[in-house]
């Protein structure tokens, strides 16, 4: 089965009204992306600007985090319902920066994914091992633990509505990229485990790779059978780099 590739930019805590304007107008003017799904996950404060710039085009937008609660006395938090009001299609959950800097646990990540699903927003559930865990031979065990905890929260029946992003922590923002073989090995392992939970969902579910994806390494990564696109951090802030990565995903799909 061919899964349409998905490229998601993660701006992290970057941007300004002026810089966003330039990036977003370049994105909305870009052509040749019709065989691809593309989204940018932006700081929530900019969702209104992003919606206004992208609403008439094919590029979707998303959040980088969400509260595990519906509403109430949770100062500083943003609910899935609020994100929905701003037309959000995707929400990152469990990014390694959230897990390590804000102590987000596997269960909390699953609860956040559930809240997004309740609002019809596609959670992009990020998984990945640290360098120490990889060197200790624990990669599969770690990603499986992260996956199982998330599935337990969202329910197997909702698996067809999520996206996974395999992001080895040691490759995020470091310039180190996992090799295409290393990535394929983990993606096919995850798809195999998903197949034991829900065979149909395992076939359709997109598994993105993230970790220092750049124009010069994207093609080899996207050519892997179980790599359905990328979660792009640093390179998503540069219009040319991000669009080049998107076009590489298109060319891998069409050749
Ligand atoms: C990310 O933020 O998810 C990411 C993969 O970052 P980078 O591409 O900069 O490594």
Please give a handful of descriptors for the protein shown:
255 residues; alpha/beta; TIM Barrel; 11 helices; 44% helix; binds phosphoenolpyruvate
Description:
This protein has 255 residues and is an alpha/beta fold. It has a single domain, classed as Alpha-Beta Barrel (TIM Barrel). The protein contains 11 helices and 8 strands. The protein has helices spanning 17-29, 47-54, 80-85, 96-101, 106-118, 131-135, 139-154, 180-197, 199-204, 218-222, 239-254; strands at residues 6-10, 37-41, 60-63, 90-93, 122-127, 163-166, 207-210, 229-232. The protein has an 8-stranded parallel beta barrel, surrounded by 5 helices. The longest helix has 18 residues, at 180-197.
Could you provide a short overview of the structure?
The protein is an alpha/beta fold and 255 residues long. It is built from 11 helices and 8 strands.
Annotate the secondary structure layout:
Blueprint: E1 6-10, H1 17-29, E2 37-41, H2 47-54, E3 60-63, H3 80-85, E4 90-93, H4 96-101, H5 106-118, E5 122-127, H6 131-135, H7 139-154, E6 163-166, H8 180-197, H9 199-204, E7 207-210, H10 218-222, E8 229-232, H11 239-254
Parallel strand pairs: 1-2, 1-8, 2-3, 3-4, 4-5, 5-6, 6-7, 7-8
